[in-house]
Write a structure and sequence with these properties.
The chain is mostly helical and 208 residues long. The chain has 3 domains: 4-60, no CATH class; 62-136, Anticodon-binding domain of a subclass of class I aminoacyl-tRNA synthetases (Four Helix Bundle (Hemerythrin (Met), subunit A), Up-down Bundle), CATH 1.20.120.640; 159-207. Helices cover 52% and strands 8% of the residues.
């Protein structure tokens, strides 16, 4: 049975089973604290938040999906001095959501809409996202995919070992040695690493 926690936004929490939810517990299990922030932002601050590890994983995935286009924009250059006029309607919706008793759930969807916009200036788009992130506090100006890969306290394998095994697995697959490829995948799984073949996010692996 999975542990579930009811977390009140005042900072109090009630334990339904297992251990109390603490920030260090999340880190020890390999979850970046910003994944928990994302989880909290998805619901209104006045409501109780029912915590589950599945919910935290979903929030982490959502954070990854938002980070990927932002990282691509950052790689293209610096943000513009200000968002262009094309972003004004979306930023107005963002302001309205925040003004509506801090409706961060709606604000998040607006930021994701900005990130998904096509055929707009990259610098202006990045400026719009980072302006929104001043409210959300997800650290999108500096956060990287490597930052989100925290080593669980119980992990018995290093990142270098993981990358070495993945490289060997790619060679095996290229040589159509699928038996060795499967054996390497199973070996990684036994050591707490899920190989994410076909992952649409392209993250390749995650610690479990």
């Amino acid at each position: 049975m999975h542990n579930n926690f009811l977390v009140e936004r005042s900072g109090k929490m009630s334990k339904s089973s297992g251990e109390f939810l603490r920030l260090q517990l999340l880190i020890d299990k390999g979850y970046h604290p910003l994944a928990y922030r994302m989880m909290c932002l998805q619901a209104h601050y006045r409501s109780e938040l029912e915590f589950s590890w599945e919910g935290l994983q979903a929030a982490l995935t959502r954070l990854k999906r938002l980070l990927m286009p932002v990282a691509n924009l950052r790689a293209q250059g610096e943000p513009a001095a200000a968002p262009g006029p094309k972003f004004a309607p979306l930023l107005e919706r963002l302001d309205a959501a925040v003004s509506d008793d801090l409706n961060t759930a709606v604000a998040l969807t607006v930021v994701e809409e900005i990130a998904a916009l096509k055929k707009v200036d990259a610098g202006e788009k990045l400026a719009a996202i980072l302006l929104a992130d001043q409210i959300l506090g997800l650290g999108l100006d500096t956060l990287s995919r490597e930052d989100l890969r925290l080593r669980p306290k119980a992990a018995e394998i290093t990142e270098a070992e993981i990358e070495e095994a993945l490289a060997a697995r790619k060679e095996a697959r290229a040589a159509k040695d699928f038996a060795r490829s499967d054996a390497l995948r199973d070996e990684l799984a036994a050591r707490g690493v899920e190989v994410m073949d076909g992952d649409p996010l392209g993250w390749e692996w995650r610690l479990i």
